Amino acid sequence: MGKGRGTSKFSLLAIILLFCLYPLFSNFYWTDVAFFFGVYALLGLSLNIVLGETGLFDLGHAAFYAIGAYITAILNTLYGIPIIWLIPLSAIGAGLFAYIVTSPIIHLRGDYLCVVTIGIGEIVRLALINNPFGLTGGPNGITGVGRPSLGPFLIDSPTRFYFYVWGILVIVIICLIRLQRSRIGRAWNYLREDDIAAETSGIDVRHFKLLAFVMGAALAGVAGNIYASKLMIVSPDTFTFMESSMLFCIVMLGGLGSIPGSILGAGIITVFPEIFRIVANYRMLFFGGALVLTMIFRPGGIWPRKREALRLQVSNIDDVKGKVRGKLKAIDKSQNMKKTTSKNNSNEPNTIGNHILTTDKLTMTFGGLVAVNEFDLAVSQGKITSIIGPNGAGKTTVFNVVTGIYKPVSGRVYFEGNDITGLKPHKIAELGLARTFQNIRLFPNLTCIENVMAGLHHRMNSYVLSSIVRTESQRAEEKWALEIAMHWLEKTGLGDVHDELAKNLPYGKQKLLELARALSSSPRLLILDEPSSGLNDKETEELMVFLESLLEEQNLTILLIEHDMNVVMGISHWVVVMDMGMKIAEGTPKEIYNHPKVIEAYLGREE
Amino acid sequence: MIILEQLLNGLTIGSFYALIALGYSMVYGVMKLINFAHGDLFALGSYLGYSLLIWGAGAASQRFGLWGGMIAALLFSFFAVGCAGVLMERVAYRPVQKSGRLPLVVSALGVSIFLQNSIMAIWGPRYQAYPASVVPTHAIHLGWLHVTIMQLFILILSFMLMLTLYYIVQKTTFGAAIRATALDREMATILGVDVRKITLFIFFLGPALGGVAGVMNGMYYRQISFVMGWNYGLKAFTATILGGIGNIPAAMLGGLLLGIVEMFGAAYISSAWKDVFTFLILIIILIFRPTGLIGEKVAEKV
After folding, report:
1. What is the DSSP letter of B35?
2. A275 within a domain of the structure (yes/no)
3. pLDDT tens digit string along A509-532?
4. What CATH number is associated with residue A570?
5. DSSP string of A200-267?
6. What CATH number is associated with residue B213?
7. pLDDT, average across residues B45-71
8. Is residue B195 part of a domain?
């Protein structure tokens, strides 16, 4: 470990030295090439936030680059504001623009988002050509942009520009690495991997998508500022769809979400055409071919991101467990206090007072199909309630409405007495309701511990600035999250595989991981959609014991859909039977077992 | 009557868009890929038709007459671009397909850059012009209405092609197989649909129709350039989304609609801002009807 760190430190030093000495050995031409390498690295990193980290198809990124360049050019030529001051202004301007134009379209998925960003890119370019209010100088653009100066030190020569851009780049890279390994970076990755699972785990998907766009745009705006001051001219020809495609290729060539990858991609894009300058007319032809070949042989990019291991810096794992238990108890206590005030001390399972979740005439339709029809459900505090029914009865739809994935056509959902109908899934998760899915929805390319930490997201506070600065409280919070996540991995028997990617786990363990993620959010109601499907008898048995132990330990209530009658009859306190979207019976397992309507729903009517 | 003429002009441009849009839509149907190289195949078609008419001007036009030359150019472009499409699928898309959608997009961008620069390397970076002698230039007057023969030819041929395709896709068993593949590739394979054959057919026919549109575009505007693929591609692609991607009649409608909207936008709003309006309309439609004008709303399975 120590040795590996030493060599990587040494190679980093060697690279820095190489970069510092480079202009001494190169002529102005190649120093300029290295400058543009730097600009494209900035642009690649800015798109990497949007496309790589967050998985949003952005094929109009040149628009944000253009906004930054034009803000710099206009304000510098009209009002003589120094270029350096315009760096933050360009960033804010581009970020604000991104916020305004992407807010209404952020809900679009995949290809549709891609199309809209292409549209935005074209609209910006065409608008610049059309010279609105005489500001942009039309097709010829704006000339006479000034040079940046750091105090008395004017940046004018290729060598100075080279150090200027790479200096900024180093700062940006450090910030981005810190961001990548924080709550923010993880949230972006969660929603890239599976935005529905992210949302139900308590991540405000819309917010973090917008944040990615705003930050990506702001960084592109900075690149625009540097570009404008170097060329001293900006014109619409720079900011074409072709430019956006190139940025897209930079990120994809390097590897999605990989910081060194994006820099490498930028290097390829800028240096490749220079090397093939001898064959002037054919160089882009080769480049097109090279893109295809790279995607055939290295579809994941040349330098893909390897998920780093998140290890606890504690020698004794039992130590951690003890500490975590203490913390969890503290949390439970505060929740208990809240509850005892409203608790109605009655043992009757369906009296109103101690129902943690109730639905009132819940109805959901898809087109003409009524999936759930005036469904009333009451889930008793601290008990296990099962919903059973034939396939297509509407059980999962009830779950999806309760957790906010679907908005009901009519009817209401109450959780701990509060009306939660129509709230967004992440809000509902924050209130203390966690779930698993019928077809496991994990974050396949993230490690197990990162998967579990998704449940902790909404219990953490650190944001962009505190993650970049790594404040004391941010580090403490990260450590806390790691400990709790580790605790749940241990509890579900996944402690040994905490650094393994979720997609590499066998089916049974994936189910447990999903359960660990749900539990880590410290929910008061846990909703499980067919927890035992795909498990063998022994695993099912263990699961049942585990679930029952949770009721006591975590002061939890469980609502589940289950087809395995042994599970249903074995652990449920209350069973609700659904058929054709309606409740046809409910009662204790024993009552349900012999209920004529239930037998009819499952086996048909006796003629 | 001006309005009627403008409508006719819009329909002419719209039929180019529609023919190109069909290729986008069909490919998207079977591969869920926005084929960014499709616009460049259209440009390739335009250049191939141009070369045939220039080099073979002596041969084609003189032996078969004006119309014979035109039809020869259209047929040549149809088959040549169709084959280029099949080759493109085989070389650049099939090996990447298993790696997911993002690498496919990059591969498509790569093919696009490759094609565009191949055209530039072969025919040069400057504009080329279809000579006036190889296309009919006269117009007919129907009352006040003024229509060129070329416009009429383009409209008739485009509508014939579109109707044929519509018939194949909507009324034949093979068309049903295409639609099934577009809906659920895996299920179609299980049910015995030869997805390979359908992919081949799509990657021939889509580009081939684009090639025909390219030649007609050259004959209509006469001037062609190696970057025209991007511009027309982008517009046609907008048309595809406008109608509803993956749906063949929707692509035709989207193309025609876009042509008309653009014509009237240029005439009554501002020609400089017409493309801005086009994209604004696209974005607004996507905000309110994310699946296009005709596309069905599909609830996502959770």
Report:
1. -
2. no
3. 999 999 999 999 999 999 999 998
4. 3.40.50.300
5. HTT--HHHHHHHHHHHHHHHHHHHHHHHHHHHSEE-GGGSSHHHHHHHHHHHHHH-TT-HHHHHHHHH
6. 1.10.3470
7. 79
8. yes
Amino acid at site A361: K
Residue B69 lies in a domain: yes
| Residue A423 CB neighbours (<10 A) | 18
Residue A5's pLDDT is 60
Domain membership of residue B229 (yes or no) is yes
Identify the CA nearest to A430 among candidates A448, A403, A449, A408: A403
Domain that holds residue A514: 317-603
Which pLDDT tens digit goes with each residue over B83-140? Answer: 999 999 999 999 998 888 889 999 999 999 999 999 999 998 889 998 887 788 788 8
Q: Is B108 within the bounds of a domain?
A: yes
Residue ranges of alpha helices (H) inside A276-394 are 283-297, 317-342
Question: Is residue A283 included in any domain, yes or no?
Answer: no
Q: Are residues A67 and A162 in the same domain?
A: yes
Residue A349: predicted pLDDT: 44
Token digits of residue B231: 């511009």
Q: Are residues A358 and A233 in the same domain?
A: no
Whether residue A251 lies inside any domain: the answer is: no
Q: CB of A466 within 8 A of CB of A473?
A: yes
Smallest Cβ distance to B283: which of A116, A252, A287? A116
User: Which residues 155-214 in chain B show a CB within 8 A of chain A?
Assistant: none
Where a domain ends, among A192, A210, A243? A243
Most B CBs within 10 Å, among A268, A272, A291, A400, to test the B interface: A291
Q: Are residues A235 and A324 in the same domain?
A: no
In a domain, A371, yes or no: yes
> Domains in chain B: how many in total?
1
Residues A220 and A362 in one domain: no
Verify whether the Cβ–Cβ distance B106 to A248 is below 8 Å. Answer: yes
- Structural domain containing residue B199: 2-288
Q: Hey, are the CB atoms on B302 and A396 less than 8 Å from each other?
A: yes
* Range B152-163 burial, b when 16+ CB lie within 10 A, else e: ebbbebbbebbe
- Chain B nearest-CA residue for A292: B107
Flag if B96 and A123 touch (Cβ within 8 Å).
Answer: no
* CA B249/CA B162 separation, integer angstroms: 9
- Look at chain A and report how many structural domains it folds into: 2
Element (H, E) at B155: helix B149-171
Q: How far is CA A604 from the centre of its chain?
A: 46
Residue A5 has, within 13 A of its CA and on its CB side, a CA count of 2
Q: What tokens does A55 get?
A: 């998985």
Report whether B276 contacts B225 (CB < 8 A).
no
Q: What is the reported pLDDT for A392?
A: 86
Closest alpha carbon within chain B to A439? B302
Q: Which of A209, A243, A277 is the last residue of a domain?
A: A243
pLDDT: is A428 or B278 the higher one? A428
Q: Cβ atoms within 10 A of the Cβ of A23, count?
A: 19
User: With an 8 Å Cβ cutoff, are A123 and B102 in contact?
Assistant: no
pLDDT of residue B292: 76
Report ipTM for this prediction: 0.89
Classify the C-alpha dihedral A376-A354-A432-A440 as positive or negative.
negative
